[in-house]
Amino acid sequence: MLWIIIVIFVIALDQYTKYLASTRLAHYNTVPIIQDVFHLTFVQNRGAAFGILQNQKVFFIIVTAGVIAGILYYVLRNKPQNRLLLAGLSMIVGGAIGNLIDRIRYGYVVDFFDFILINFPVFNIADSFVVIGTVLLSYYLLFQYEEKRDGTQ
């Protein structure tokens, strides 16, 4: 049940912050929080990470739906008990759904966190949770996952 709460929380937080960015930030384009270091910058991202594969909406929708379906299938079929694994997968699913909602609704993803100091691509809450979830999943796979002799975990 914890994983469902995490997914809902991530989607709600992501959509709320994107709503704020769209309704308040879009008028200013960019708002410096720390001048020349960190700004809030409204961006309509029609690509993937780092803006690659611009205007491939259908491709992104299909791939994202496949990833979400694959993770949900794994969780529902295997019912993993490891909280770290469930948290990581839940964050990935929540973030993926958050960005998927934007792609279907607007044809682009709303991004707004802008680290100017290191010239990092503008990103959003969903992207952050996908990255955090991937780090947790990687940690689990590298340091906690143990396959039993019969091939189960």
Brief account:
With 153 residues, the chain is an alpha+beta fold.
Outline the structure in words.
With 153 residues, the protein is an alpha+beta fold. 59% of the residues lie in helices and 13% in strands. The chain has helices spanning 2-25, 57-78, 83-106, 125-144, and strands at 30-34, 38-45, 109-115. Strands 1-2-3 form a three-stranded antiparallel β-sheet. A hairpin with a 3-residue loop joins β1 (30-34) and β2 (38-45). The longest helix has 24 residues, at 2-25. It is globular and about 50 Å long.
Notable characteristics:
153 residues; alpha+beta; 3-stranded antiparallel β-sheet; 4 helices; globular
Give helix and strand order, one letter per element, not per position.
Answer: HEEHHEH
Low-confidence stretches: none
Q: Overall pLDDT, averaged?
A: 91
The helix count comes to 4
DSSP strand count: 3
Number of domains: 1
Q: Walk across the major sheet and give the strand order.
A: 1-2-3
Q: Span between N and C termini?
A: 20 Å
SSE topology sketch:
Layout: H1 2-25, E1 30-34, E2 38-45, H2 57-78, H3 83-106, E3 109-115, H4 125-144
Antiparallel strand pairs: 1-2, 2-3
Helix pairs in contact: 1-3, 2-3, 3-4
